[in-house]
Amino acid sequence: MKGKMLFVFFIIIAVLIALVGRLAYIQLKSGDRYARIILNQQEYSSKTIPFRRGDIVDRKGTVLATSTDVYNVILDCSVLTSREQYLEPTIAAMVQCFGVDETELRAYVSENPKKRYYKVMDKLPYEEIAQFEDLQNDEKNGKNIKGVWFEKEYIREHPYDTLASTLLGFTTSGNVGIGGLEDYYNETLNGVDGKEYGYVNDDSNYEIKVKEAADGNTLVSTIDANLQSITENKIAEFNNAMKDGQNEGAKNIGVIMMDPNTGEVLAMATNRTYSLQNPWNLDTLCYLSADESTKAIHQAERIELKKYYDTDTIDAMTEEAWNAALSEHYTEDQLSNIRNTAQLNQVWNNFCISSTYEPGSTAKPFTVATGLDSGTLTGNETYYCDGGETISGHHISCIKRAGHGVETIQQSLENSCNDALMQMSYAIGPANFSRYQHIFNFGLKTNIDLPGEARTDSLIYPEDQLSTINLATNSFGQSYNVTMVQMITGYCSLINGGKYYQPHMVSKITDANGNTVQNIEPTLIKETISEETSATIRQYLQGVIVNGSGKKAKVDGYSMGGKTGTAQKLPRSARKYLVSFIGSVPADNPQVAIYVVVDEANSEDQAHSYYAQSIAREILKEALPYLGIYPDEELTGVNEGVGITGEGIQVEQTPESMDSEVPTEAPQSAEGEPSGQ
């Protein structure tokens, strides 16, 4: 019996020796490999390192949009509960530094002891986490403060809030640009997130690997913050002077300032500004008329219904059926969001590039340039204005029903004479007129680097549809549509020697360290007219300011050129007008161009271009000295004491004298029928 026990004992000893030997062999030969396998099976945390979205600055480096770092307070409950001594000091520090609810925090930790990521607070500036970090790093009191870390991210900030809001746009979550430069250059402004993660190295040690984020690039815009501020302030001044308890000062006001020799936009503004810090604020809906709100909501609801019904079904719906269909697919909260967003889109819309209208008499210099450059006009012609032309049974009136009498081409522009322009159109002919409309880029996009530029290709007549009456009305800016950016870009080519530059908003792109990534040079697209024709047009436009309809735009001490416009909108019985002024300084060597549009001024007497002229004059009075453009004429006191709305001006023409009969062949797509000055 004793021998058997010894035998079993030795067998066990032998097995143990063999097992130890085998383990030693594995450790020596494959220990590292198995260690890595075990370590790789463990769960290691990783975190994203966010990129910083690039800034947007003005032409002089003033920051208009930037990204500021903020911190989310993250609690790792698994660390906090891993040792008993961590709990109390950590919770006490969080209550002291962040003011969190202690009861709620304890309850969460108790219910989720293994939770590794719990966002306690978000988007705190560094100043608000600094105290906690000091406690955490204190060798004596902070050794048991564990399980709290700070997740860095960025928020978009706009130091001047509403300044250039329609130009800049804003961002939503995920660094997605909405409108303006934020939208158009979204990929340029965005960078690439970095990553921090753990791995097992060749020595079987756990290490932290960091791949740094690549920050986004910065846009150096062409706009000047001071010029933009001057422009917006003058628009606001006009709006405040004209508005009443129910209506804004005008339905729309737009202003563009441009360098005519480069196509750089120096300022672009509308009356519909909004807070870039809070673009979803519904208070801005005050800009919209009841009709505009109703139309926007109806269009948005129709888009939603088209997801479920065909067009014929939607068209046949009664109001009751329409509302029932919406309620079937959406909650009231969802419908409210759809309707609010539809209206806010109208506020965020940039009138200067996204809205079309008939230009009125600001188009007349283009007609004259077409005639001169094509050789169908010599410049020596005279015309007899007897108050209008009768074409195909329609009498189309001049702004002066009694007639201007005999006029030269220059005088016809100074007087803004429809009759003379119509007579010019007969000589120019459909082929030349259509060809030069395309040369001046009407009907085509300018491709400015902003989102939402409106198409106008269907809003001008092709050559084969330019009947005598259509050609006649087109000659003075009626029956075709343009955008503001089309008009001022084409105008710049009229006055700069015939060079059509692509309008642009950004002059340079730099990286996060300020190094130049790309210089965006002025792009000469084409030549529209000859130097000789351009010089003649500049002379004519100066005459408009000195002797004609543009006197109210005159800035004392400066030579200027320009043209006025008053467009009557449909329905004509409503007597709604869009008035405008386009001009340049100095007259013979233009360094700056400006275009002002006032759409439906809040007045019973809307049909006066001096609304637009006065806004332009008041902007230029401050802008010209700032730009270093010095007076080149003697001071005469012209327009002294005349205010932003033109008060103090003796009205020389009544709205009735500016009406013209609407031809029945006007395009159905046209928003309104312009006439006269």
From TrEMBL:
One of its GO terms (molecular function) is penicillin binding. GO terms for biological process: cell wall organization. The keyword Plastid does not apply. The keyword Endoplasmic reticulum does not apply. Residues 254-621 form the Penicillin-binding protein transpeptidase domain. GO terms for cellular component: plasma membrane. Residues 49-205 form the Penicillin-binding protein dimerisation domain. Gene3D superfamilies: DD-peptidase/beta-lactamase superfamily (3.40.710.10), Penicillin-binding protein 2a (Domain 2) (3.90.1310.10). Keywords: Membrane, Transferase. Residues 649-677 are annotated as: Disordered. It is found in: Membrane. InterPro entries: Beta-lactam/transpept, Beta-lactam/transpept-like, PBP_dimer, PBP_dimer_sf, PCN-bd_Tpept. Belongs to the transpeptidase family. This is Peptidoglycan glycosyltransferase.
